[in-house]
C-alpha cells in the first residue's frame, strides 16, 4: 500500500517571474487543467470573459495631451472580437466523460491513461506522468467494497473486448482527473458528494436506494422522523407481501378489507401528522409572536429611553443656557452700575499689576484669551517615555553602573594633623558625655581604714581690727544727734499713721462694727444696718421705677426714632433712586432729543435731497421730454414740409401739365383777337387791384382784393 505525502515549498522572489502561473483560457485548451464541477467551469468562463486582456485603450484625439481628470486622454473599451474560435465547445463535458468511462468499465475495457495505444512508451509513476495514476476506479454498483481491493487487469488483449471481435473505443481527448489535496471535503464543498451508481442487471433493488430522494439538509443526516419513516416503509412492504394476489378472485374481498383498513390507518396517521404539524406551527407562531412582542417592547423601551435622555439633554442644555444668560446679564448690569454717569475711566496699570486676580495675570477665556492654548507644545512626547518598548530600549542604552549599582562601605578618613572645628567640638562633646556617663554609673565604695591618715589643720583666722576710742565730748554729741533722729523719725511715722487712719476711717468703723462685742453696739449696728437696707431698698425701688420709666420712654422714643430713621433711610434711598432715575430720565431725554435732532436733521436732509433729486429728475425728464418733443416735432414738421413740398410739386406739375395741355390746345384753336383779350384781362387783374388797394389804404379800411375764380380765354 502506497502513501503519498504532499509538501508545500514557498519559493522566494516567485512573483518576479516573467510569465503568469495561469492563462485565461486554460480551462478549454490545457488537458491537465482540472475543474471540480460545472460551477467551477462557469466561474472560469466568467473570469475569461471579464479578463483585463480584452480591454483596450482608445485615445481621444481632442484631448490627447490633456492631464485634466474631466478631459481624459483615452477611454477604456471592451474588444468585441472573441479570442476563442466559434468551433470550440465551451460546455463542461464532465458528465459525458463519466458516462463514457462507466460504459467502458461495464464493457470490460481498460481505460487508456494507464497504457499508451500508440508508441508504447513507458510511463514513469513518479515523473511527469504521475497525474495519470491518480484516477480512482469507478464502482458502478451500490455494494460495499473493501478499500484494500485491487482490480486485476484481464489477461486478454487489453486493446480488444472479451469477445475479441471489436476494436477498443478511442480514448477521450479531455477528462477530469481526481487529485489529492490538502483540504477535506467538508472544507472544499458545501454538499457531500454522492457518486453515480448502476444496478447490476438481474439483481433485486437494494433497500438503500429507497433513500436516494433524501439530500443533505432535506432528510440527511437522518433523524428520528427519518427512522420512523424507514420503519413504516418496512412495515408497509411486509404488509404488501401478506396481501392476497390479484388473480385470486376468492380473496378479493379480503384484499379489499385489508386495503381499506390500511387506508384508514394511513388516514389516521396522516391526521396525527397534520395535528402535530399544526401544533408545531402554532408553537412556532406563538414563539415568533412572543419574540416580536419582546422586540417591540425592547424597541419601545429603547425609544422611551432615547426620548427621556434627549429631553434630559435638552433640559440640561436649556438650564445651562439660562444660567449662562443670567450670568452674562448680571455681569452686564454690574458693569453698567459701576459707571452710571457714563464717565470714561483710564486704566490703572499699578492696580492691575498689584492685583493678582486681574486680567493681566488671569485673563478670562470668554474675552477670547486662552493662556493655556499652546501649552502642549512644551510637553515632551517621546516614544521612549510613552511606550514600554521605548523604556526597554532606553534602559538598554544606559551603562551597567546605573542599572546595577555597586555600594561600597565608606572608608574612615585619616586626619593628617589638622582637625576641623566641628570635628573638635564633636570630640569634646563625646568626651564630656562619656565622663558624665561614667560619673553617674560610678558607685563609691567605703573602704576600711587600714592605716591612719593625717588630719590637716585649718588655717587660723586673722585678728579682729580695733578702732581707736573717740574723745568724751564727741561721743555725747553723737548720742544726742542719734536721739534727735529717733524722735523725728517716730513723729513722722505717727503722722503717717494718723493720715492713714483718717483716710481709712470708714473701713476701721466697719471692722469695729463687725468685731464689736458689746450688745448695745450690736443693736445700734443692727438698727443702722436696717436703716441702711431700707434706704438702699427705697433707693433701688426708686431707681427701678426711674429705670422703668426711662426704659418705656427710651422704648417709645426708640420706636419713634427707629420708625423715623427707617422712614428717613427709605426716603433717602427713594430720593437717591428718584434722583438716579431722574438722572437716567434726563440722560435718556437728552439722548432722545439728540437722536430726534439728529434724526430730524437727517430727515430734513433726506427730504431736501429727495426734493432736489426730484426736481433734478423733473428738470432732466422735462429737458429729455422737450428734446424728444422738439426732435419729434422737427421730424414731423420736416416730414410734413417734405411731404407737402412733394405733393405740391406733384400737384403743380400735374396742374401745369393740364394747363399746358389746355393752353397748347387753345393756342392751336384761338385767333389773334382772343390772344389780345387774354392779355388785357391779365393786365386788368394786375393793375386794377393795386389801385384799389391804394385807395382803401388812404381811406383807412381793409381791402379784400377780388381774385377771379376762373380765367376765361
Class based on secondary structure composition and strand pairing: mainly alpha
Topology as H/E string?
A: HHEEHHEEHHHHHHHHHHH
Strand content is under 5%
How many DSSP E strands? 4
As laid out across the biggest beta sheet, the strand order is 1-2
Poorly predicted regions are 1-20, 108-121, 137-168, 705-713
User: Which whole number gives the mean pLDDT?
Assistant: 75
Cα-atom Rg, whole angstroms?
A: 75 Å
Helix content: 55-70%
Largest sheet properties: 2 strands, antiparallel
Distance between the termini: 163 Å
What is the helix tally? 15
Instruction: Please tell me what the overall shape is.
Output: flat
GO cellular component, one term: axoneme
Protein name: Cilia- and flagella-associated protein 91
Main location: cytoplasm
Domain CFAP91: 179-332
What does this structure look like?
Residues 179-332 form the CFAP91 domain. This is Cilia- and flagella-associated protein 91. It comes from Oncorhynchus mykiss (Rainbow trout). Belongs to the CFAP91 family. Keywords: Cell projection, Cytoplasm, Cytoskeleton. This protein is an all-alpha fold and 713 residues long. Among the domains are: 23-203, no CATH class; 476-509; 549-669; 674-713, no CATH class. 57% of the residues lie in helices and 2% in strands. It contains 15 helices and 4 strands. It has helices at 26-29, 38-49, 94-106, 185-188, 224-242, 252-338, 349-354, 383-386, 388-396, 400-403, 421-441, 472-503, 505-514, 519-669, 672-699; strands at residues 55-59, 74-78, 215-216, 219-220. The strands form 2 sheets. It has a two-stranded antiparallel sheet with strand order 1-2. It has a two-stranded parallel ribbon with strand order 3-4. It is flat. The chain starts with 25 loop residues before the first helix and ends in a 14-residue tail after the last helix.
Amino acid at each position: 500500500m502506497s502513501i503519498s505525502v504532499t509538501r508545500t515549498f514557498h519559493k522566494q522572489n516567485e512573483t518576479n517571474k516573467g510569465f503568469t502561473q495561469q492563462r485565461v483560457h486554460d480551462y478549454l485548451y490545457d488537458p491537465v487543467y482540472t475543474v471540480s464541477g460545472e460551477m467551477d467551469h462557469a466561474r472560469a468562463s466568467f473570469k475569461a470573459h471579464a479578463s483585463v486582456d480584452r480591454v483596450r485603450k482608445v485615445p481621444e484625439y481632442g484631448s490627447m495631451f490633456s492631464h485634466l481628470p474631466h478631459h481624459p486622454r483615452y477611454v477604456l473599451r471592451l474588444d468585441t472580437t472573441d479570442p476563442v474560435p466559434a468551433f470550440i465547445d465551451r460546455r463542461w463535458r464532465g458528465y459525458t466523460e463519466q458516462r463514457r468511462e462507466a460504459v467502458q468499465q461495464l464493457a470490460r475495457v481498460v481505460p487508456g491513461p494507464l497504457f499508451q495505444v500508440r508508441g508504447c512508451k513507458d510511463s514513469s509513476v513518479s515523473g511527469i506522468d504521475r497525474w495519470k495514476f491518480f484516477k480512482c476506479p469507478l464502482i458502478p454498483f451500490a455494494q460495499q467494497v473493501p478499500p484494500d481491493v485491487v482490480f486485476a487487469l484481464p489477461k486478454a488483449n487489453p486493446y480488444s473486448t472479451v469477445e475479441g471481435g471489436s476494436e477498443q473505443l478511442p480514448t477521450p481527448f479531455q477528462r477530469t482527473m481526481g487529485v489529492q489535496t490538502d483540504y477535506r471535503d467538508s472544507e472544499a464543498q458545501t454538499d457531500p458528494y454522492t457518486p453515480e451508481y448502476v444496478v447490476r442487471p438481474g439483481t433485486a433493488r437494494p433497500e438503500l436506494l429507497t433513500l436516494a430522494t433524501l439530500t443533505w439538509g432535506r432528510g440527511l443526516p437522518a433523524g428520528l422522523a427519518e427512522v420512523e419513516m424507514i420503519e413504516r416503509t418496512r412495515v408497509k412492504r411486509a404488509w404488501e407481501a401478506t396481501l392476497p394476489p390479484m388473480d385470486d378472485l376468492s380473496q378479493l374481498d379480503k384484499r379489499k378489507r385489508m386495503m381499506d383498513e390500511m387506508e384508514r390507518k394511513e388516514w389516521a396517521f396522516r391526521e396525527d401528522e397534520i395535528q402535530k404539524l399544526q401544533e408545531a406551527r402554532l408553537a412556532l407562531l406563538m414563539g415568533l409572536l412572543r419574540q416580536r412582542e419582546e422586540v417591540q417592547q425592547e424597541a419601545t423601551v429603547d425609544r422611551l429611553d432615547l426620548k427621556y435622555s434627549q429631553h434630559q439633554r435638552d433640559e440640561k442644555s436649556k438650564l445651562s443656557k439660562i444660567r449662562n444668560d443670567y450670568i452674562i446679564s448680571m455681569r452686564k448690569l454690574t458693569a453698567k452700575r459701576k459707571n452710571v454717569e457714563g464717565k470714561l475711566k483710564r486704566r490703572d496699570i499699578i492696580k492691575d499689576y498689584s492685583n493678582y486676580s486681574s486680567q493681566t495675570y488671569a485673563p478670562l477665556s470668554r474675552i477670547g484669551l486662552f493662556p493655556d492654548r499652546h501649552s502642549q507644545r512644551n510637553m515632551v512626547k517621546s516614544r521612549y517615555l510613552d511606550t514600554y518598548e521605548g523604556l526597554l530600549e532606553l534602559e538598554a542604552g544606559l551603562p551597567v553602573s546605573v542599572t546595577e549599582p555597586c555600594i561600597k562601605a565608606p572608608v574612615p578618613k585619616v586626619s593628617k594633623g589638622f582637625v576641623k572645628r566641628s570635628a573638635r567640638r564633636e570630640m569634646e562633646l563625646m568626651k564630656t558625655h562619656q565622663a558624665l556617663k561614667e560619673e553617674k554609673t560610678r558607685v563609691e565604695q567605703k573602704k576600711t581604714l587600714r592605716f591612719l591618715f593625717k588630719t590637716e589643720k585649718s588655717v587660723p583666722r586673722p585678728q579682729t581690727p580695733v578702732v581707736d576710742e573717740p574723745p568724751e565730748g564727741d561721743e555725747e554729741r553723737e548720742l544726742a544727734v542719734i536721739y534727735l533722729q529717733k524722735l523725728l523719725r517716730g513723729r513722722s511715722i505717727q503722722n503717717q499713721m494718723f493720715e492713714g487712719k483718717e483716710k481709712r476711717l470708714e473701713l476701721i468703723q466697719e471692722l469695729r462694727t463687725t468685731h464689736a462685742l458689746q450688745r448695745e453696739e450690736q443693736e445700734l449696728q443692727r438698727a443702722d444696718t436696717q436703716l441702711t437696707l431700707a434706704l438702699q431698698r427705697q433707693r433701688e425701688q426708686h431707681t427701678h421705677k426711674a429705670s422703668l420709666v426711662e426704659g418705656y420712654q427710651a422704648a417709645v422714643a426708640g420706636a419713634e426714632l427707629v420708625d423715623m430713621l427707617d422712614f428717613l433711610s427709605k426716603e433717602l434711598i427713594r430720593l437717591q433712586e428718584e434722583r438716579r432715575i431722574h438722572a437716567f430720565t434726563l440722560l435718556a431725554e437728552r439722548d432722545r432729543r439728540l437722536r430726534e435732532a439728529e434724526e430730524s436733521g437727517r430727515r430734513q436732509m433726506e427730504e431736501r435731497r429727495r426734493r432736489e433729486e426730484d426736481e433734478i429728475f423733473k428738470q432732466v425728464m422735462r429737458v429729455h421730454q422737450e428734446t424728444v418733443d422738439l426732435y419729434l416735432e422737427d421730424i414731423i414738421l420736416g416730414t410734413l414740409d417734405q411731404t407737402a413740398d412733394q405733393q405740391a410739386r406733384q400737384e403743380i406739375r400735374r396742374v401745369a401739365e393740364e394747363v399746358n395741355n389746355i393752353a397748347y390746345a387753345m393756342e392751336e384753336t384761338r385767333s389773334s383777337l382772343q390772344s389780345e383779350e387774354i392779355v388785357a384781362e391779365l393786365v386788368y387783374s394786375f393793375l386794377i387791384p393795386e389801385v384799389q388797394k391804394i385807395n382803401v389804404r388812404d381811406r383807412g379800411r381793409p381791402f379784400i382784393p377780388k381774385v377771379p375764380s376762373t380765367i376765361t380765354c
